[in-house]
Amino acid sequence: MVNDNKSDTLIQKYTVCANDFASAGAASASVKKTLKQLGFSPDFIRRTSIAMYEGEINMVIHGGGGIAEAEIAENYVKITLTDEGPGIADIDLAMREGFSTASESVRELGFGAGMGLPNIKKQADEINLSSEVGVGTTLVISLFSGA
Amino acid sequence: MKLDQVMKVVNAKVYTNVPFGDIEINAACGADLMSDALAFGENKGLLLTGLNNPQSIRTAEMMDISCVMLVRGKEPDESLVNLANEKEIVVMKTDYSMYTACGLLYKAGLPGGDLT
Q1: Under an 8 A CB cutoff, do B43 and A32 touch?
Q2: pTM
Q3: Which of B32, B34, B63, B114 should one mutate to test binding to chain A, selecting the residue with the greatest count of A CBs within 10 A?
Q4: With contact defined as beta carbons under 8 Å apart, do B70 and B49 qualify?
Q5: Which CATH superfamily is domain B3-107 in?
Q6: Number of structural domains, chain A?
Q7: Boundaries of domain holding A68
Q8: Neighboring chain B residues of A103 at a CB cutoff of 8 Å
Q9: Among the residues of B26-97, which ranges form H helices?
Q10: pLDDT, tens only, A70-84
Q11: CB-based contact B70:B55 (threshold 8 Å)
């Protein structure tokens, strides 16, 4: 983890490794701990944690790993997940509940229900998903603590 | 329902050293796929699962779930127990199947949680 403190925001950066299911979720757990220390409400912490964890798992499974960055301010958290993986060919389809391209071996590990992106959308206040096939994917998840 | 009552209802064995006598469980969910579990709305709940790897604990951690119950007699991996102890999440196993374990707990008064 790398901390980068601006005047009124805290930036935490993590490297997420591809196919490393033993440590998958460690970045989300670390951000959750920080949010607790900063005194955010339990509901806000829970929503943020679930959204980031789902995104982190997607990077592990589909994105070939990448960078997870959490920008934490007094009244919002913005999580940016960037990978250089294969990209998403059809974003509308990827957002549909139950749609998954995960392999059988990934399903045996408990993932690939096709609920990741829909769960993120439910928990977040805003999401912005941009992707280019063969280049990579960036997912920005924003949550506002007063929302 | 207190967690020690949950343990009695499904004749469970405990693997963690996390104190649990006073932990109150509001609701339970059963899922083998973690995204299904993450759609579960209750915190301070119980997750019944057949998923015997550390991601069941990570999922519980994100959701503020107090206890993970492995079904069908699965002995938890050491890595799972270690992570659970670190995160103060209770791990139990029951020999009952998912269906039967959920049914027994529901019959004993533990409700299912709402989806978010």
Answers
A1: no
A2: 0.88
A3: B34
A4: yes
A5: HprK N-terminal domain-like (3.40.1390.20)
A6: 1
A7: 2-144
A8: none
A9: 34-38, 54-63, 78-87
A10: 999 999 999 999 998
A11: no
